[in-house]
């Protein structure tokens, strides 16, 4: 069992460095596979958190003096802010010092750094951000794109289908993942021309292509991969992720009822599904939600470890 | 109290003529306002259903010999199939014989007939299909467009904002409805150029414009109107509508728990919110879901009656 080496941006989440490091510690109880972590961020902040947590084993610190603010132009930040946590993490990966990167920071900065430092896979013009949508089957569906590419042409949608298929296949023991295109109806004349053309191409390229699915089917988990443009995917993902906390808000005021419901509905809890992989990049890069709790960070770490393992075959 | 005269396409739903006519009968118990209905469809089928229901009062029959099949080109059907239920209903409305039309049939045929027979409102290039999304506040949000316009430019989104505002205002006693734009983030640099431009224009045109909302906020019901393109709106609406039945599927197997949950979650039941209004048309036209139950049809009828009443001021 080779130790898997991760770089983690500990400055990027909404809840601060402490939540992210607590998540990494938590991840150790979720996987038996050994992993080490380079904590990328402000060294002083990191040392304070580690001394609070009383757990410094297995960590290395990569001090990052730069900070990317809201006023920085995200698409160029990877170039101008080489000392920022995201850019340092991706650079460590490009230098072969780590196997994967996890960040809860700005998606565009992460994507820009990944594309320009690690590079794209052959035949991929637009890498995609994918995400796991909780479903009532208990097995999440991989949805892509969820925000990296707002306007998509046929070639992009077809590439997303292929990337999603390949990623899910890593984890499916011999079974081929099924792929569908998100559309406004099942009839073969509904939808944009890009979607209709993509359906024809995917049908000829993937034996497990299942045609169209509508918004009402997403939570049913009928296919392993769903392809759409990044605007629709982002909106849909966030709406689906809001179902579990809203149900708890509506139903949870009665303590006994609340506990029963939480147990049954827990399959729809987005916290269980970890980070969103950037697909089409020459390397393993995962984007955790900005609002990730330590539990969500822990699952993101495990997802990174599992992805590197599966990729090694 | 002037009787409100409706034309209803009784051939268009997935569950057949009987469900639609049963819904009309059911609507009588949901409103005290008098209304009459012209049943547009196959006369023989209608007479069979009416004799089964043993209720023929208040109905007139508009025999429609034409049928629009899946192979007809929807955009032209309004012209070629003048004897189809949708086209007959809209024509009765254009002739001043009814005040509003309700159909659970093909959206594109209904929209085509409405645009070309009734016409558009001044300054509206693209009428929109709006729909009520259930929210946890118990007060639904009007979402538009939900499928009539898949690709939208700035001018269309701004028009949708204005149309949604005007429609909701009909029902709000003196209070001005709030309007938001659906986007992938709240930051003013996120989103497509059409969305960013629309935000600027809506901000200058509507005093109750509230900026951006994300997918996670839709079910929270924070604004009265949410504007988006028709592809995203269709997917989002269907996903949100799937939430109530899926929750019941996951939680409802325990009879006692199921009943408690149904009672609390009923505010998210899409059946309670009736049909989707076509906005920007010179007349009241409502589209019910193809899969409408009789209860959903009943609420669509009430929505049509209320819209005509409110429009008269």
Structure characterization notes:
Two copies of one chain form a homodimer. By secondary structure, chain A is of the alpha/beta class. Chain A is 43% helix and 17% strand. Chain A has helices at residues 16-27, 43-53, 74-80, 85-94, 107-118, 154-171, 193-205, 230-251, 255-265, 294-312, and strands at residues 4-9, 35-41, 59-63, 100-103, 128-133, 141-144, 179-182, 209-213, 225-227, 276-279, 284-287. The first copy, chain A, is globular and about 60 Å long. At the A-B interface, helix 8 and helix 9 of A face helix 8 and helix 9 of B.
> How many helical elements of chain A?
10
Helix content of chain A: 40-55%
Task: Please give the radius of gyration of chain A in angstroms.
Answer: 19 Å
DSSP strand tally of chain A: 11
Going across the major beta sheet of chain A, what is the strand order? 3-2-1-4-11-10-5-6-9-7-8
Shape of chain A: globular
Name the structural class of chain A.
alpha/beta
- Unreliable stretches of chain A, pLDDT < 50, 5 or more residues? none
Report, as a whole number of angstroms, the end-to-end distance of chain A.
13 Å
Beta-strand percentage range of chain A: 15-25%
What's the overall average pLDDT of chain A, rounded?
90
For the biggest sheet of chain A, the summary is:
11 strands, mixed
Q: What kind of assembly state do the chains in view correspond to?
A: homodimer
Secondary-structure element string of chain A: EHEHEHHEHEEHEHEEHHEEH
Largest interface, and how many residues on either side?
A-B, 43 and 44 residues
């Amino acid at each position: 069992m080779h130790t898997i080496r991760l770089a983690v941006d500990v400055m990027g989440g909404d809840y601060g460095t402490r939540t992210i490091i607590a998540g990494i510690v938590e991840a150790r109880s979720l996987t038996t596979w050994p992993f080490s972590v380079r904590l990328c961020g402000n060294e002083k902040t990191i040392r304070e958190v580690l001394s609070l947590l009383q757990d410094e084993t297995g960590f290395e610190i990569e001090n990052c003096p730069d900070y990317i603010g809201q006023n920085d132009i995200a698409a160029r930040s990877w170039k101008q802010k080489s000392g920022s946590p995201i850019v340092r993490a991706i650079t460590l990966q490009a230098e072969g010092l780590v196997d994967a990167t996890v960040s809860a920071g700005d998606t565009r900065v992460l994507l820009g750094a990944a594309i320009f430092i690690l590079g794209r896979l052959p035949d991929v013009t637009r890498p995609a951000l994918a995400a796991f949508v909780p479903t009532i089957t208990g097995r999440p569906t991989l949805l892509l794109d969820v925000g990296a590419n707002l306007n998509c042409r046929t070639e992009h949608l077809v590439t997303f289908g292929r990337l999603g298929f390949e990623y899910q296949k890593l984890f499916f023991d011999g079974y081929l993942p099924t792929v569908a295109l998100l559309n406004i109806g099942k009839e073969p004349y509904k939808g944009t021309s890009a979607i209709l053309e993509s359906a024809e191409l995917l049908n000829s390229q993937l034996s497990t292509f299942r045609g169209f699915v509508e918004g009402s089917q997403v939570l049913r988990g009928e296919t392993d991969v769903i392809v759409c443009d990044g605007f629709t995917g982002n909106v849909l993902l966030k709406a689906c992720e809001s179902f579990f906390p809203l149900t708890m808000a509506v139903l949870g005021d009665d303590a006994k009822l609340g506990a029963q419901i939480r147990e049954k509905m827990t399959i729809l809890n987005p916290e269980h599904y970890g980070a969103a992989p950037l697909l089409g990049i020459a390397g393993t890069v995962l984007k955790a939600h900005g609002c990730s709790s330590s539990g969500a960070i822990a699952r993101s770490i495990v997802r990174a470890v599992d992805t590197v393992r599966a990729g090694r075959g």
